[in-house]
Amino acid sequence: MESNSVIRQGGTMHKIRREDLLSLEEYAKRRNIFRDEVLVHKKHRQVHLGDHITLYFEDRLTIQYQVQEMLRTERIFEMEGIADELAAYNPLIPDGCNLKATMMIEYVDVDERRDALAKLIGVEDKIWLQAAGQDKVFAMADEDMERSNEEKTSAVHFLRFEFTSTMVQRLKSGGVLAAGVDHPECRIAVAALPKETHASLIADFD
Q: Which of 56, 129, 141, 198 could make an SS bond with 102 (beta carbons 3.0 to 4.6 A apart)?
């Protein structure tokens, strides 16, 4: 791995290559340090929409950590297996004109969660971000596979938010980034994300 930092080139966040990864042995040595760095990084990439919906915005560093953890857990060291993991996780890295997030619907009580997931069918398509003065950008959800059915939505979704160049420029020039949910069973609006979160997310457009 070249660095624990996010590496960019040509305005687009690099996808992870095989040579960017640590071997299982080397990762075991550096895991604690790497994990601590990632946890600090991820702290400013979480957006809470009410008490039960959280967006965890992904970038190269968060995805590299997930890949390394998956290889470690599954003891994957052969080239084919590593390639499969990279093919699965690389699409979650932003492409320079979008933000990508893992959405979690979280309830401690099992019965409450079951009822909520039944009421929130389609909520993944009603999550939005908005640059100041611009139209809302609604998420494109679960492009890899369908995660909802007629009875309930899933507790986990993968979202992509596509921004125009004007929207990106507005954010980079100091315009606030808002977020929310427009669903009949859940209407939430966060007028402006914290400045640390704003700074971390607009870096995804560099």
A: 56
